[in-house]
Write a structure and sequence with these properties.
heterodimer; A: 244 residues; alpha/beta; Elongation Factor Tu (Ef-tu), domain 3; Dihydroorotate dehydrogenase B (pyrk subunit), domain 3; 7-stranded antiparallel beta sheet; B: 302 residues; TIM Barrel; 7-stranded parallel beta sheet; 4-stranded antiparallel beta sheet; 15 strands; 19% strand; binds flavin-adenine dinucleotide; binds flavin mononucleotide; binds FE2/S2 (inorganic) cluster
C-alpha cells in the first residue's frame, strides 16, 4: 500500500452518472489488475474504494458511478485538483490461472477493473472474450475500449435496448478456460451457479479502512475468514460459500 | 526521559500515542508501512477465549466526522493470538504491547487474561468491559458498577501485570464505573469505547448495519470523550488513558490537559494509516507553540 497525493488530469462524464477520472503522479506505480484504490473525498470521513480501471506510466484511470455523497463530490473535481489516494490495495486477479481463452464478465461499474485485466491478458497472448452487462443502452460505457483490446466483446442490456436482451449469463461464450468477473452481487451469484469453468470473482463490501486493519469487510470462505480488502477483493470461485 | 515520554503503570512510554484496539490489528501489518517502534505502544485487537467471526456485513457505516462499526469482536481466539499473532509481531515490535481482552462471562475474561498474563510480550492487560454479559441478561458489564467490579476483581486475581479497565461511555455516570474498577484493583482506566449509534439507508428504508446498531467513533465523539476523561480523572487516583476522536497532536494535548496520562487513537488510523507517526512527529512543534516543556506537566492541568 502507498499513500499519494495525485493530480487530476481529467474527469469526464461517460454517461449521465458514470465518470472517468485520470490521476497522475504515482511514482514507481506497481498496480495489478483487480486491485483498487481508496480515495479521500471532501466532507466525508471514510475513503471511497474504487477499482483500478487502467494504470499506464504514472497515470491511473478510475471509472466511477455517482452513488452518493462521496462519488458526487468526486464528480466535481477539476483538472489540477490534488487527491489523497491509497493505492496498491487488495490482491488483484491471478493472471496465471487464465488458460488460453479467458472470459471477462462485468456488470455496470464492475466492468472497469476488467479493462486493465484485458490489456494485461492480451499482452500475454491470450484469446480474450468479454461480456459486458448494462441495464439499458444509455448506460453503456467503455464498449469501444474493450473492442479495441479484446478478441470478442458481447454486450447485454436488461431491457434489450442494445445488444443481447438479458443478463451476462445469457451471453457466455463456449468453453472458456477461466472466468474473471466483477459486478453486483446478484449477477455474481448467477454466474457462480451457471459457470462451469474456474473463476475469479471480485467482491464488494462496505469498508472502514481498505487495507486490512479494521475487520469491517470480512467474509467466510471455504479456506476460512477473509478480509475483502486485503485477502481479496478477488476470490477463487471455488472458495466462495454461495451454495444456497 | 524525553519531552514526550510518560509513565503508564510503571512502564515508560517514549510518547503517549497508542493505536486503539480494533484499528491496528496485531500490529505487524502496519509494520510493513512504517517502523511501529515509534509508537508509545499499541493495543491489539479485542481477544476472546474462542475464535469469533463476528457480525454479518455491512459492519461499517459512515456519519458526519465519524463512523459506526459493528465488527462484533472478530478475532482468532486467545490460543491463535499467542501461537500465531504474537510471534509475527515479535520481530517487528520491541516494546511491551497492550493486550485487549473481551469476554461474555467472568470466566471468559479470567481464562483469556490468565493466558495473556503468561506472555512476555504483553505489558498491560486492557479489559474491554463494554461486552454483553450472557449471564446477566446480555447487559454490558461496563454499564453496571457491580458487574464491572466483579469482572475486574476476578481478573485482578490472575495477573500481576498492570490492569487497565476500558470503560463504556454508554452510561449515565461514568465516574461510578471508574471508581468501581479502581476499587476492584485496576491500575488504570481507559476511555471511551464507542457510543452506541445507528444509521438508516433512505433508499432501502432499513438500517445500514446488518447488526442494526453499532459503535460510533471518530472526531464526532471527541468532546464527549474529553468531558468523560476530565470527569474520571477528577474522580479516581489511578491513571486515565484518554481516547475518542483523537486525530491530531492538538487533540492529544487537549486529552492530556483533560487528565489523560496516555492517549489512544482509533478511527484516525483507518482513514490515514500514517496518522500515529504523523501525530508523534508533530507533537514537539505543537508543544512549543503552546509553551509546553514536557507532556507530563500538562496531565489534568485543565
Ligand atoms: C473493492 C471495491 C471496488 C469498487 N470499485 C468501484 C468502481 O470501480 N467504480 C464504482 O463506481 N464503484 C466501485 N465500488 C463501489 C464504490 O465504492 C461505492 O459506490 C462508493 O463507495 C459509494 O460512495 P458514495 O459516497 O458515493 O455513496 P454513499 O452511499 O453516500 O456512501 C456511504 C458509505 O457507504 C459506502 N458504500 C456505499 N456503496 C458502496 C458499495 N457499493 N461498495 C462499498 N462501499 C459502499 C461508502 O464507501 C461510504 O462509506 C467499489 C467498491 C469496492 C468495495
Ligand atoms: C473498527 C473498530 C473496531 C474496534 N474494536 C475494538 C475492540 O476489539 N476492543 C475494544 O476495546 N475497542 C474496540 N474499538 C474501540 C476503539 O478502540 C476506541 O475505543 C473507539 O473507537 C474510540 O476511539 P476513536 O474515536 O479514536 O476511534 C473498535 C473501534 C473501531 C472503529
Ligand atoms: S475494510 Fe478494514 S479490514 Fe477490510
Amino acid at each position: 500500500m502507498k499513500q499519494s497525493l495525485l493530480t487530476v488530469i481529467s474527469n469526464s462524464a461517460l454517461t449521465s452518472n458514470v465518470y472517468e477520472l485520470k490521476l497522475s503522479g504515482i511514482e514507481g506505480m506497481n498496480i495489478r489488475p483487480g486491485q483498487f484504490v481508496n480515495v479521500k473525498t471532501d466532507g466525508n470521513y471514510l475513503r471511497r474504494p474504487i477499482s483500478v480501471c487502467d494504470a499506464e506510466g504514472d497515470i491511473l484511470t478510475l471509472v466511477y458511478r455517482v452513488a452518493g455523497a462521496g462519488t458526487a463530490e468526486m464528480s466535481t473535481w477539476q483538472v489540477g485538483k490534488k487527491a489523497d489516494v491509497l493505492t496498491e490495495l487488495g490482491n488483484g486477479y491471478d493472471l496465471s490461472a487464465a488458460g488460453d481463452h479467458p472470459v471477462l464478465i462485468g456488470g455496470g461499474v464492475g466492468i472497469p477493473p476488467l479493462y486493465y485485466l484485458a490489456k494485461e491478458l492480451k499482452k500475454q497472448g491470450k484469446t480474450v472474450s468479454a461480456v459486458l452487462g448494462f441495464n439499458t443502452a444509455s448506460e453503456r460505457f467503455y464498449e469501444e475500449a474493450f473492442r479495441e483490446v479484446c478478441d470478442d466483446v458481447c454486450v447485454t442490456t436488461a431491457d434489450g435496448s442494445y445488444g443481447i436482451k438479458g443478463f451476462v449469463t445469457d451471453a457466455l461464450p463456449q468453453n472458456p478456460t477461466c472466468s474473471y468477473a466483477c459486478g453486483p452481487t446478484p449477477m455474481m451469484k448467477a454466474l457462480y451457479r451457471s459457470l462451469a469453468c474456474d473463476g475469479q470473482f471480485s467482491l464488494e463490501e462496505r469498508m472502514g479502512c481498505g487495507f486490512g486493519a479494521c475487520m469491517g469487510c470480512s467474509i467466510q470462505t471455504k479456506s476460512g475468514n477473509k478480509r475483502v480488502c486485503k485477502d481479496g477483493p478477488v476470490f477463487r470461485k471455488e472458495d466462495l460459500l454461495w451454495e444456497d | 526521559m524525553g519531552r514526550l515520554s510518560v509513565e503508564l503503570c510503571g512502564i515508560e512510554l517514549d510518547n503517549p500515542v497508542i493505536p486503539a484496539s480494533g484499528t491496528f490489528g496485531f500490529g505487524y501489518e502496519f509494520a510493513e508501512l512504517y517502523d511501529i517502534n515509534c509508537l508509545g505502544t499499541f493495543s491489539f485487537k479485542g481477544t476472546t477465549k474462542d475464535p469469533r467471526f463476528g457480525n454479518p456485513t455491512p459492519r461499517i457505516a459512515e456519519c458526519s466526522m465519524g463512523m459506526l462499526n459493528a465488527v462484533g469482536l472478530q478475532n482468532p481466539g486467545v490460543e491463535a493470538v499467542i501461537n500465531e499473532e504474537l510471534p509475527k509481531l515479535k520481530p517487528v515490535f520491541h516494546k511491551p504491547v497492550m493486550a485487549n481482552i473481551s469476554g461474555f462471562s467472568v470466566d471468559d475474561y479470567v481464562y483469556t487474561a490468565k493466558k495473556l498474563d503468561a506472555e512476555d510480550q504483553v505489558g498491560w492487560l486492557e479489559i474491554n468491559i463494554s461486552c454483553p454479559n450472557v449471564h446477566g441478561g446480555g447487559m454490558s458489564f461496563g454499564t453496571d458498577p457491580d458487574a464491572a467490579y466483579e469482572v475486574i476483581h476476578a481478573v485482578r486475581q490472575v495477573t500481576k501485570k498492570p490492569l487497565i479497565a476500558k470503560l463504556s461511555p454508554n452510561v449515565t455516570d461514568i465516574t461510578a464505573i471508574a471508581k468501581a474498577c479502581e476499587n476492584a484493583g485496576a491500575d488504570a482506566v481507559s476511555l471511551i469505547n464507542t457510543l452506541l449509534g445507528m444509521r438508516i439507508d433512505l433508499k432501502t428504508k432499513k438500517p445500514v448495519l446488518a447488526n442494526t446498531t453499532g459503535g460510533l467513533s471518530g472526531p464526532a465523539v471527541f468532546p464527549v470523550a474529553v468531558r468523560m476523561v476530565y470527569q474520571v480523572h477528577k474522580a479516581v487516583s489511578i491513571p486515565v488513558i484518554g481516547m475518542g476522536g483523537v486525530s491530531s497532536a492538538q487533540d492529544v494535548i487537549e486529552m492530556m490537559m483533560a487528565g489523560a496520562t496516555a492517549v489512544e487513537i482509533g478511527a484516525a488510523n483507518l482513514v490515514d494509516p500514517f496518522a500515529c507517526p504523523k501525530i508523534i512527529e508533530e507533537l514537539p512543534a505543537v508543544m512549543d507553540r503552546c509553551g509546553i516543556e514536557n507532556l507530563t506537566d500538562i496531565i489534568g492541568i485543565a
